[in-house]
Amino acid sequence: QVQLVESGGGLVQAGGSLRLSCAASERTFSTYAMGWFRQAPGKDREFVAAVTRSGGNTYYATSVKGRFTCSRDNAKNTVYLQMNSLKHEDTAVYYCAARQTDSGYAYSRSTDYNYWGQGTLVTVSP
């Protein structure tokens, strides 16, 4: 069972940048499709970004496209979320998620994922 640990959250002003990391315990990390989700206070968890097993393809929510970049380093068992031009509405707890798969797909539904990290808080001041 893979364990996921996010880091990199914090407080940043609007317009600033943060990079989130998610380290996985599993040596077969390259067999997992990875995703990022977020949950703002009082709102449902929503999809942010996803990356295929190889890292060759990514998929983004419309709200973050052009500002966020999802990538992975399979040698380091880590997936990243580079967040630029942050907005106050990006404030949320950010979660990474993993799904072991034989496919080359990226997944955008939370129900597609089997494993979740504990989350890291990102606060963007107006």
Features of this protein?
126 residues; mainly beta; seven-stranded mixed sheet; four-stranded antiparallel sheet; globular
Structure notes:
This protein has strands spanning about 5, 10-15, 20-25, 30-40, 45-50, 60, 70-75, 80-85, 90-100, 115, 120-125. With about 130 residues, it is mainly beta.
| Biggest sheet details | 7 strands, mixed
Q: Could you name the ranges where pLDDT drops below 50 across 5 or more consecutive residues? A: none
N-to-C CA distance: 39 Å
Taken as a percent bin, the fraction of beta residues is over 45%
- Coarse morphology: globular
Radius of gyration: 13 Å
User: What is the arithmetic mean of pLDDT?
Assistant: 97
**Helix count, DSSP H or I runs of 4 or more residues:** 0
Provide a brief overview of the structure.
The protein has no helices and eleven strands.
In terms of topology, how is this protein built?
Elements: E1 4-7, E2 10-13, E3 18-24, E4 32-39, E5 46-51, E6 58-60, E7 68-73, E8 78-83, E9 92-100, E10 115-116, E11 120-125
Parallel strand pairs: 2-11
Antiparallel strand pairs: 1-3, 3-8, 4-5, 4-9, 5-6, 7-8, 9-10, 9-11
